[in-house]
Amino acid sequence: MRFILISLLLLVAGISRADDFRTWDDGALVWSDFSGKSVMKTTPTYFKGVLKVRTVEQDKADGVFGNNPDFSTYALAVMDCGVSYADSTYRTSQMLRYHQLQFDILEYYRRRLQAELSYGVAGIEADTRCNYYQKLYNERIADIARKTVNGSNDYKLQEEEYLIRKQLEEFYRPKVTSLNPGKFSYGWYVGTGMLVPTSDLSDCFKNSWLFNIGLTFGYRRFFIKGDISYGQPDLVDIRKPLMGQQMEWATNKYTNQLSGIVAIGYRVLDTKHFSITPNIGGGWTNYAWDVADYKKNPEWDEKNPETEYIIASDIRKNKIHDFNFMVSVDFDWHFHSVISDKQAFLSGRREQYVSSLRLSPYLMKQKYDKLEGSPSGLQVGFTITYTGIARAIGIK
Questions:
Q1: What does the alpha-carbon distance between residue 386 and residue 213 come to, in Å, rounded to a whole number?
Q2: Cβ neighbourhood burial of 354 (10 Å; 0-12, 13-18, 19+)
Q3: Global pTM?
Q4: Tens digits of per-residue pLDDT, 90-131?
Q5: Which of 192, 222, 228 is nearest to 210 (CA)?
Q6: Is 33 helix (H, G, I), strand (E, B) or coil?
Q7: How many Å apart are CA 233 and CA 320, to the nearest integer?
Q8: For residue 13, what is the DSSP state?
Q9: Are 320 and 286 in contact (CB under 8 A)?
Q10: Kind and range of the H or E element at 225?
């Protein structure tokens, strides 16, 4: 049963051409397994062993909510027969023992990797651990090649064979577990971005960089998120009476801009390394800037044009705000994942935490009736944020 499952895994992964690949469970090596062509005259025989990780879902996503299927992650010890080769004059029983030793060592590291996968390591972290054990294997093989002089020293070869037999006997084959992702998730994000007013709004306010922070909650593939952003865009013209009152001007070019959104999204693509989530919802913006009444300076000197007008009232704040519709798309690049060792307080289960870099372009409709002429237009922008999402994981 285990042999059939591994063969199916290799087939699904696109690496199972029967003549080119084989697993450790297929039995002891024979010279006919080495079907590659020699590429180095100084290396008459060569064994290519690779560790691989494959994930198999127990059932596929279905329904409008998108089911989160149970899945198992398998570690495979694979010989690449198409790359492995052996010159006919060097196909001795001792050299075959040497390459079997290499395959046995690969199986030992596969078992160590599978033990971690069965404990809950999955996703990106599984790939990271696979690369780690592949490195350990490569280093050990290089050390054995030096000790045994590429398998020609029979005494040293026997020592290494005895050692790996003991290790395989003591390190049993770990049971492959099944992981069950929870339906609910939660997380947060923080970063920066840009806001660009368009149409009539661009006659009032300039572009600005924003600081952005928010929270997100999910049910299967549905997500709801809310965030706030802060920036300080410049006024286009500080002498422009934005509120329609003549001689009421801004005292400086700086404004305080505070905005926020509440949106619901559906994750249309969700892979180990990448996901896409379109969102629709509402966006709120608020602008505030200092203004005062100005009058002609009776002592104005033409040599100092900046003193032509002087403040004739107390400085006060003008504020405008609007709530309108918005749309956005979240592009998440997942670069790290980890499963907690302890159970979470609320769920009573261990949790998987996925770290991502998120790019979120968005459009937000705005109209400010308090401004003269009721200017309207789209606020076009994007945010780049670090995003962390946690989800309960059951292991069985």
A1: 10
A2: buried
A3: 0.79
A4: 999 999 999 999 999 999 999 999 999 998 888 899 999 999
A5: 192
A6: helix
A7: 14
A8: T
A9: yes
A10: strand 222-231
